[in-house]
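User: Okay, second chain of the day. Same drill as before: sequence in, structure tokens out.
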Amino acid sequence: MGIMKNALRERIRRKDIYVVIMIGILIVMMCMSGAATLSINGVSVTEFQMVMPLVMNVISVLGGGIAIALSLRTIPNEYERKTSHLVWIRGVSQWKYHGQLALANIVSSVGALFILYAGVMIFAAVRGETGVLVKGVPAFLIFSVSTAAVSLFTSAVSLVLPSMAAGVLCAAFMLAGTMHPILETVSGIVSGVSRQLVRAILFIVPDLYAAESQAANLLSGKTVQIHSILGGLLVLYVCGLLLFVIRRKEA
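Assistant: Same drill. Structure tokens below.
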């Protein structure tokens, strides 16, 4: 586990990530406090139970962006610094090496997500929403599945693509997956080539929103759909499998 620990230390030393997290916290707190006006069909949304799902979506996008930033350069940097040679000498297999680096990416990404998520829990405590606090931990475990999948996907893609291309692809993957319900609605509105394009995106990109929405349902006291959570875990498994299937030549 030494490889993972070293990678985590490197993530902790990155000051730019703390800046992004602080900006994210400010956005979340503004949305929850009412400083930023949220409205649906022109009607202002002020009730906690209505604001929370919207803020969870904001946290999801911010968390996915942070996961990409944290995971994009971890493995490529190891190859560029020739650190991998020291690992091969010790007889560590490539899949184990990549796996520990990816695990460090997941831990740091989920940790950053938790900091943003904690803002919702703090606001719930201030509002006296004790029921939300009780369900906070299991809801976070469900909510973090998509962020972990984005982190794994980014780690895998970074093995074969240049940083810029990998970043664009992963950002598109995260946004399309998070906006899956919106894209489904759009596919029913547009026609012709546009409809075929949107449907192709829906077919290729997994629904990252499904598991996240169940976390919001759990916090709101609504019915939780187990199959959506299982679908999120399947996406996480497939993204992890990519990491072990893709091989990279020793630098």
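The chain has a mean pLDDT of 81.

User: Thanks, on to the next one.
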